[in-house]
Fold:
Amino acid sequence: MARAALGGLHDDVLMRVQNDLFDLGADIATPGDDFAPSDMTLRIVASQVEWLEATIDRVNAGLDPLKSFILPAGTPGAAALHLARAIVRRAERAMVAANARTPLNPRALTYINRLSDLVFILCRDVNKSGGGDVLWVPGASR
Structure:
C-alpha cells in the first residue's frame, strides 16, 4: 500500500524491504538454535541489517533534527508509511514475545527493530516535500 501511495518515491528501498520481509517470514517460520543460513534454511543476515542502517543514515542526513514528537499525519504517502510503521512495531512485539518461548534469530529481531526506524525516517522524508512534519503540540487542545 505504501509503495502505491508514494507513486515511485523510495520505490527501490520499499521493494527491497518487501523482499526482505519474505526472507524474515521464512526465518521466523524455522526456529531453532542454529541461525546460520544454509541451502535449506533462509536467515536474515548481517548485510540485510547493515543495509537498513546505511539507508537510515543516508535518508536521515537530508532531514532537519527532531525538535518535537511527530504525529502520524501528512501526505497520503507519509500516512501510508505511518500505518506501515505501526504494523512493523506490532510485528516486532509479536516476535519478541515469540522469542521468549522459542529462540528466534537475533538478526531477525534486529532487522524488524531497525525497519521501524527506517519507515519513520521515510515518513519524515516524504513529508519534507509535502509541507513538513506534523508536530505534536503538548496541551494544545486544553
Summary: The chain has one domain: 10-58+71-128. The chain is about 60% helix and 0% strand.
